[in-house]
C-alpha cells in the first residue's frame, strides 16, 4: 500500500457513502458503497483477500469517496456511477426475465399493447402473465373481436384493419368516448375473466353464418370461441385474489455467489431469475447491491421474502414494500425452494464453460497478445451489401467482455461507397470516431475489423484523418475457415493454440455479423416492399401508401392472402401481387 492510500484511509469517516477505486492511470476500476466508509475501505487493505478482490486490490493506486446522508442515497449513487463508468471489477446484472402486462390505453382512441411496467396512469393494466407469448395471443384475439385502434401513429387514410371492420377508423372520422365506452367495458370484463357476453355474441354470429351457408365464416367464429376458452382457463388461475411476492435466496461455492429470485404474482408462480457472479468479501453488502440493481428494472412486489435479518433491516429503509424473514410455515417452505434453486444455479454454472467468469483474465491475455493495455472496451465493425446495393455498416461494443447494446450503432453507407468494401470501411470508421472526438466521448481500447490487412489499412487511414490513435486489429480466417488470425501492425497472430481467446473473439464476431445482417435484411425488405408495386397497373401513389401501411415489411406482405388484398385492390391486381411474391 502506497503512502497516498495510507494518508487517505486515515482521513475517512464513520459515515455512509460511495467509494471509487482507481488504477495507476487514474481510471476507475471499482465503485462500491458502504454504511461506514472507514470500516469498508480499510477492509480491502488490512485483510487478506482472494479471487477477484485480490486482483483488484493489487491494481488500486488511489481512491475517492463521496459522503452521503444515508445508505439508501449511497446505494442509488453507486448504481449511477457504475452505469456511468462501467468499472471492470463491478457486476451489472444482465436483465433477468420480466413478466408482461396487457395495457389498455384509456384516453383518446384506446388501443392495446404489451407492457413490462405498470406505472403509466394513461393505461389500465392486467396481469402480469407468465409468458409474453400468452399475452400476445390474448391481445391478438381481442384485436380480432373488438374494433380498437391498431396503428401506433394514426395514418391520414384508412388502413387494412378499417376495411376488415377491425377498427372504427379514427383516421377518417371522429370517434367519441361514448363510442368507445362499451368496447372498453367489454374488454375490461374479458381480461378480468368474465367472457360470458362475448361468447354469447360470437355463438349467435356463428349460428347465423351457418344458417346462411357461410361455412368459412362460421369456422372462424368457432376458432374464436376455442381461443376464448383456452385463454379463460389460463386466466382463471391468474385472477384469483392471492398475494404478490418475491422469494429471495443466496448460495455460495468456491468464491462464487448465486442469487435466486422466485416471482409470485396473484398467487401464481410466474418463474425465476438466477444470477451467478464472483463473490466479494462482504456478502451482505453484495446481496443488498444486487437486489437494488434488480428492482431498478423490475416492479417491486407487495412483499419480499428472504433469509437474512441484517439484509431485511437495511433494505427496509430502501424499499417501500414489506420485507419478511419467515421462521416457519408455508413462506419458510418457499424460502427453502428458492435456496434449492440458488444451489442448482451455482452447480449448473460450475458444470458449464466458465468463459464469463474468466473474462478479465481473457482480456488481459488478449492485451498481452496484441502488446496493448487490457482492452476493456472493444468495438467491432462489419459491413453488408447485396451486389453493392443497400450497403450498411454496423458496430457493436463489448465492455469488460460483455455485450453493451446501448452503444451499438448502424450506418447507411453512401451510394458512392457501397460497391467498394474498403471505401465503406473508411466511411464508417471516420463517421464513428470523428463523432466521438467532436462530442468528447470515450474511445475504445481496441478496434477490431472483419478482414485482413486491406481492411486494417482502410480503417487506419480514417483514424489518421480524424487524428486519433486507437489500437486496431483485424480478425480473419484461413481459406478453409479452420484457423482464425489476428492481424496487428502487419503481424499475423495465430489463435490455433489459444482456445479461450479464439472462442471469445468468435462470439464477438458472431454478434457483429448478426447485428449487421439483421439491419441489412430489414432495409432490403423495406425497399423490396416499396418496389414490388411499381410496375403493377392500377396501383397509384395513394394506393401504394395504403398497401405499405397495411404491410410494412416483405414478410407481412407474403403472409397476406389474395382475399385480404382484395379489401384494398381489385381481384386482378391482388392476383398479380401474389404472383410477384412467389418469385421473390
Describe the protein:
It is built from 21 helices and 19 strands. It has 584 residues and is α+β, with helices and mostly antiparallel strands. Among the domains are: 3-85, GIY-YIG endonuclease (3-Layer(aba) Sandwich), CATH 3.40.1440.10; 245-351, 2-Layer Sandwich (Nucleotidyltransferase, domain 5); 359-525, Nucleotidyltransferase, domain 5; 532-582, DNA polymerase, domain 1 (Orthogonal Bundle). The strands form 4 sheets. Strands 12, 13, 14, 15, 16, 17, 18 and 19 form an 8-stranded mixed β-sheet that branches. A hairpin with a 2-residue loop joins strand 8 and strand 9. It is globular and about 90 Å long.
Topology readout:
Layout: H1 3-10, E1 17-22, E2 28-34, H2 37-46, H3 51-59, E3 62-67, H4 71-85, E4 101-105, E5 112-115, E6 123-126, H5 132-145, H6 160-163, H7 177-191, H8 196-211, H9 215-238, E7 245-253, E8 256-265, E9 268-278, H10 283-296, E10 303-305, H11 309-315, E11 322-324, H12 330-351, H13 359-370, E12 377-386, E13 389-399, E14 402-403, E15 409-412, H14 415-418, H15 421-438, E16 446-450, H16 453-466, E17 472-477, E18 484-488, E19 491-494, H17 499-531, H18 541-550, H19 554-558, H20 562-565, H21 571-582
Parallel strand pairs: 7-10, 10-11, 12-16, 16-17
Antiparallel strand pairs: 1-2, 1-3, 4-5, 4-6, 7-8, 8-9, 12-13, 13-14, 13-15, 17-18, 18-19
Amino acid at each position: 500500500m502506497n503512502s497516498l492510500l495510507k494518508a487517505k484511509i486515515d482521513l475517512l469517516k464513520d459515515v455512509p457513502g460511495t467509494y471509487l477505486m482507481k488504477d495507476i492511470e487514474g481510471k476507475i476500476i471499482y465503485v462500491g458503497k458502504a454504511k461506514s466508509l472507514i470500516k469498508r475501505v480499510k477492509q480491502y487493505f488490512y485483510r487478506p483477500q482472494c479471487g477477484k478482490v485480490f486482483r483488484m486490490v493489487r491494481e488500486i493506486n488511489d481512491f475517492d469517496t463521496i459522503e452521503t446522508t444515508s445508505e439508501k442515497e449511497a446505494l442509488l449513487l453507486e448504481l449511477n456511477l457504475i452505469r456511468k463508468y462501467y468499472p471492470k471489477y463491478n457486476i451489472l446484472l444482465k436483465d433477468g426475465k420480466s413478466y408482461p402486462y396487457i395495457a389498455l390505453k384509456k384516453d383518446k382512441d384506446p388501443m392495446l399493447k404489451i407492457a413490462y411496467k405498470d406505472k403509466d396512469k394513461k393505461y389500465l393494466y392486467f396481469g402480469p402473465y407468465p409468458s409474453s407469448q400468452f399475452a400476445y395471443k390474448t391481445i391478438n384475439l381481442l384485436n380480432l373481436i373488438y374494433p380498437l385502434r391498431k396503428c401506433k401513429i394514426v395514418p391520414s387514410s384508412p388502413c387494412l384493419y378499417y376495411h376488415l371492420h377491425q377498427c372504427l377508423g379514427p383516421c377518417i372520422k371522429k370517434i367519441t368516448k361514448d363510442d368507445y365506452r362499451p368496447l372498453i367495458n367489454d374488454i375490461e370484463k374479458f381480461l378480468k375473466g368474465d367472457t360470458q357476453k362475448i361468447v354469447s355474441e360470437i355463438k349467435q354470429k356463428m349460428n347465423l353464418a351457418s344458417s346462411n351457408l357461410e361455412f368459412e365464416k362460421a369456422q372462424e367464429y368457432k376458432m374464436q370461441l376455442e381461443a376464448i376458452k383456452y385463454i379463460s382457463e389460463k386466466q382463471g388461475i391468474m385472477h384469483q385474489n392471492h398475494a404478490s411476492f418475491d422469494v429471495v435466496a443466496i448460495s455460495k461455492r468456491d468464491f462464487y455467489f448465486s442469487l435466486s429470485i422466485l416471482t409470485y404474482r396473484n398467487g401464481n408462480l410466474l418463474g425465476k431469475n438466477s444470477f451467478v457472479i464472483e463473490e466479494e468479501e462482504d456478502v451482505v453488502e453484495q446481496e443488498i447491491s444486487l437486489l437494488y440493481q434488480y428492482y431498478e428494472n423490475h416492479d417491486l412486489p407487495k412483499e419480499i421474502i428472504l433469509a437474512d435479518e441484517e439484509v431485511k433491516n437495511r433494505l427496509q429503509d430502501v424499499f417501500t414494500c414489506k420485507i419478511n424473514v419467515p421462521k416457519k410455515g408455508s413462506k419458510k417452505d418457499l424460502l427453502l425452494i428458492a435456496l434449492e434453486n440458488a444451489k442448482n444455479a451455482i452447480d449448473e454454472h460450475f458444470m458449464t464453460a466458465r468463459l464469463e467468469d474468466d473474462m478479465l483474465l481473457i482480456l488481459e491475455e488478449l492485451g498481452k497478445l496484441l502488446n496493448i493495455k487490457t482492452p476493456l472496451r472493444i468495438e467491432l465493425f462489419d459491413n453488408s451489401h447485396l451486389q453493392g446495393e443497400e450497403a450498411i455498416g454496423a458496430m457493436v461494443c463489448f465492455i469488460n467482455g460483455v455485450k453493451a447494446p446501448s452503444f451499438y450503432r448502424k450506418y447507411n453507407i453512401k451510394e458512392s461507397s457501397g460497391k467498394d468494401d474498403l471505401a465503406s470501411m473508411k466511411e464508417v470508421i471516420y463517421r464513428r470516431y470523428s463523432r466521438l472526438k467532436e462530442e468528447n466521448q470515450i474511445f475504445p481500447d481496441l478496434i477490431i475489423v472483419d478482414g485482413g490487412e486491406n481492411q486494417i489499412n482502410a480503417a487506419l487511414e480514417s483514424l489518421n484523418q480524424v487524428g486519433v490513435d486507437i489500437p486496431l486489429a483485424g480478425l480473419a480466417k484461413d481459406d478453409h475457415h479452420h484457423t482464425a488470425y489476428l492481424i496487428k501492425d502487419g503481424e499475423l497472430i495465430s489463435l490455433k493454440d489459444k482456445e479461450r481467446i479464439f472462442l471469445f473473439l468468435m462470439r464477438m464476431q458472431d454478434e457483429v455479423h448478426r447485428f449487421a445482417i439483421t439491419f441489412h435484411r430489414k432495409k432490403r425488405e423495406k425497399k423490396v416492399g416499396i418496389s414490388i408495386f411499381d410496375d403493377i397497373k392500377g396501383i397509384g401513389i395513394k394506393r401504394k401508401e395504403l398497401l405499405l401501411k397495411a404491410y410494412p415489411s416483405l414478410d407481412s406482405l407474403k403472409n397476406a392472402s389474395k382475399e385480404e388484398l382484395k379489401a384494398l385492390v381489385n381481384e386482378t391486381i391482388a392476383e398479380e401481387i401474389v404472383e410477384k411474391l412467389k418469385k421473390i
